[in-house]
Amino acid sequence: VVAFVSNRSGYEEVWLMNANGSTQTKLTNLSSTITRGPAWSPDGTKVAFSKMFSICTINVNGTGFTQLSPVGPADDEPAWSPDGRELAYVSFETGRPAIFRQNLITAKRQQLTNFRGLNGAPSWSPDGKQLALVLSKDGNPEIYTLDLETSKFTRLTRHFAIDTEPTWMADGKNLLFTSDRGGTPQIYKLNVATRATERLTF
């Protein structure tokens, strides 16, 4: 099942549909003009999203709507931890983009980045020990990993192009990301250990 945002009802709402495009169903009734970034929980029972730049979750049956962050500071790009207990997301509450993690049970929050420039697109590794993310602190947007135990950042890409939107593959050894290094935005595969990069789309 695919979660997506559509304004076909007059407002931007989260919708669900089968992978073949059939059975399209409106999940939310937010009456929101800005809804973004729906993301499935690992167990498939909830969807996280940003409503008016506030992080929210809802059960897949349309019940249990929960607003996790207040409207105002502009929170976006929610990403679930593999155990479903935390979300990582981007917040502008410091006046510039920064990545936070938040425990969904205790509501405890931790700021993970606060670099100048872009801090975005957090993605949890399958074992929950690392985040892949995009930072532009050294110039161009590049893919990094963050060890959540040691707080060590490791830069994975070095290119004059825009590298963004990292997503871990299930093996935990490779990432997929988007780059315009070939002239147009395409999907690439990156080995985290060797930094070997392979273009997948043309």
H and E order = EEEEEEEEEEEEEEEEEEE
What percentage of amino acids are in beta strands? over 45%
Please identify the structural class as seen in this structure.
mainly beta
Give average pLDDT, whole number.
94
Helix count equals: 0
CA(first)-CA(last) distance = 26 Å
The total strand number stands at 19
What gross morphology would you assign? globular
**Largest beta sheet: strand ordering:** 4-5-6-7
Query: Major sheet, described briefly?
Result: 4 strands, antiparallel
Can you tell me the residue ranges where pLDDT is under 50 for at least 5 consecutive residues?
Answer: none
What report would you give on this structure?
By secondary structure, the protein is mainly β. It has strands at 2-6, 13-17, 25-26, 35-40, 46-51, 54-59, 66-67, 75-80, 86-91, 98-103, 109-111, 119-124, 130-135, 142-147, 153-155, 163-168, 174-179, 186-191, 197-199. The strands form five sheets. The chain has a four-stranded antiparallel β-sheet, with no helix packed on it. Strands 8-9-10-11 form a four-stranded antiparallel β-sheet, with no helix packed on it. It has a four-stranded antiparallel β-sheet with strand order 12-13-14-15, with no helix packed on it. It is globular.
SSE diagram, text form:
Elements: E1 2-6, E2 13-17, E3 25-26, E4 35-40, E5 46-51, E6 54-59, E7 66-67, E8 75-80, E9 86-91, E10 98-103, E11 109-111, E12 119-124, E13 130-135, E14 142-147, E15 153-155, E16 163-168, E17 174-179, E18 186-191, E19 197-199
Antiparallel strand pairs: 1-2, 2-3, 4-5, 5-6, 6-7, 8-9, 9-10, 10-11, 12-13, 13-14, 14-15, 16-17, 17-18, 18-19
